[in-house]
TrEMBL record:
The active site is at H70, E129, H133. It is found in: Cytoplasm; Vacuole lumen. Belongs to the RNase T2 family. GO terms for cellular component: extracellular region; vacuolar lumen. Rnase which modulates cell survival under stress conditions. Released from the vacuole to the cytoplasm during stress to promote tRNA and rRNA cleavage and to activate separately a downstream pathway that promotes cell death. Involved in cell size, vacuolar morphology and growth at high temperatures and high salt concentration. The keyword DNA damage does not apply. Its EC number is 4.6.1.19. Residues 288-404 form the RNase T2-like C-terminal domain. InterPro entries: Ribonuclease_T2_eukaryotic, RNase_T2-like, RNase_T2-like_sf, RNase_T2_His_AS_2, RNaseT2L_C. This is ribonuclease T2. CDD domains: RNase_T2_euk. It comes from the Eukaryota.
Length: 406
């Protein structure tokens, strides 16, 4: 362990003496930099991260219509997919439930549904994932915090892992392509890969057990900035590749599972979104939403903040409640406490009492669409209480909007 942190000190002497989790917008992308950089803002060694998901059927874990969280892993060597593990035994905390109860109760509540241990010992599983993988992420080193409070880096790890999982609705993506759990139908690897790649943008590592049963997915990322607050950029897989056969893949139902449809649209790691795990997304025919909900923002492959009542985006604070009303054209309109919402003449999302002709949006099952596209944009990623306008024309930062019914 001492040798590893000595290595970090060679890369940057500033991490210990001038620490902060607020990183420059020009921070390099992990696994791509060629010069020394502060490892509080650059994940090193390694920097290739995986958000990993389970599909457990024997015994079944989690809702019957959602994959569950395995973890967030740091890969050291993109060439062979190797990783470091259990890097700091002094921070291998054994009271994750209590830590999250005190600091992030909504994250804990979500994990109790979607981060499940196949043997029924969730606390032990969470301790394992943090101790084995979380303690190896350099940006989560306690020295990277101003006024560090013990265990706060573990809270950041679980918050970020949950928000990453929420942005990756594997069940919905597969279902949209006609790939649903079945005791009789089998699928090809190419069909599963196509369904996931079309949504994620890059190939996904798809794993099966010895019975050719689909049971795990790995989504691959590089990160600009720190794990706790940086931008996750999807990237190509590394390592040995998928373990499923090319044909005859079984995607078995979860016997006796419950149905909960908000696995991908809960609270973010930064913006404060009330949790309602029993509230489904309400849809009407023709791609319309109906009822009340939050507009969460996806950027860099991760959920980061939400839209507030004026139609602007921010990453820290309480999300606004919007009312979706089906329109006669098969879409829906949005209203906030500020008034009706529309795309203005400057191509910005605006909600105001001065809006007399609200814009009609549609819903594609995953994202809110405008004029047939789920692409929205901003000039920059806001921080703190700063707000950013959201546009429908190309700009520096690409966004997507998801709906969380309440």
């Amino acid at each position: 362990m001492a040798a590893r942190y000595l290595l970090l000190g060679v890369v940057t002497a500033g991490c210990v003496t001038a620490t902060s989790v607020t990183c420059s917008a020009s921070a390099p992308l992990s696994c791509h930099n060629t010069t020394s950089y502060d490892t509080c803002c650059l994940n090193y060694p390694g920097g290739h991260l995986l958000q990993t998901q389970f599909w457990d059927t024997n015994p079944a874990t989690g809702p019957s219509d959602s994959w569950t969280i395995h973890g967030l892993w740091l890969i050291l060597s993109p060439g062979d997919g190797t990783y470091d593990s259990s890097c700091d035994p002094s921070r291998a905390y054994t009271n994750i439930t209590q830590i999250l109860q005190a600091a992030a109760p909504s994250t804990l509540q979500y994990m109790q549904t979607y981060w499940k241990d196949i043997n029924g010992n969730d606390e032990s599983f969470w301790e394992h994932e943090w101790g084995k993988h979380g303690t190896c992420i350099s940006t989560l080193n306690p020295s990277c915090y101003i006024n560090y409070q013990p265990t706060q880096e573990a809270v950041d790890f679980f918050d970020r892992t949950v928000s990453m999982f929420q942005s990756l609705p594997s069940y919905s993506w597969l279902s949209a392509a006609g790939i649903v759990p079945s005791t009789t139908t089998t699928y090809t690897l190419s069909a599963i890969q196509s369904a996931l790649t079309s949504k994620f943008g890059y190939a996904v590592t798809i794993n099966c057990n010895s019975n050719n049963e689909l049971n795990e997915l790995w989504y691959h990322y590089n990160v600009q900035g720190s794990v706790q607050s940086g931008t996750f950029e999807p990237t190509s897989p590394v390592g040995s590749g998928s373990t499923c056969p090319s044909t005859g893949i079984k995607y078995l139902p979860k016997p006796g599972g419950t149905t909960v449809t908000t696995a991908t649209t809960m609270t973010t790691a930064t913006a404060s979104t009330p949790v309602s795990s029993a509230s489904p997304t309400t849809t009407a025919p023709g791609g319309a939403l109906s009822g009340k909900g939050y507009l969460n923002v996806i950027t860099g492959g991760a959920q980061k903040g939400c839209i507030i009542s004026s139609g602007t985006w921010y990453t820290t604070g309480t999300c606004a409640t919007f009312t979706a009303t089906p329109s006669g054209s098969g879409g829906f309109t949005l209203t906030s406490s500020k008034g009706k919402c529309a795309i203005s003449s400057s191509n910005a999302l605006t909600c105001s009492s001065s809006v007399t002709s609200p814009t009609v949006f549609t819903y594609d099952g995953t994202y809110v669409d405008y004029a047939g596209s789920s692409a929205f944009y901003a000039a920059s990623v806001p921080s703190g209480t700063t707000q950013a306008a959201v546009y429908t024309t190309p700009n520096t930062v690409s966004l997507k909007l998801t709906w969380q019914a309440i």
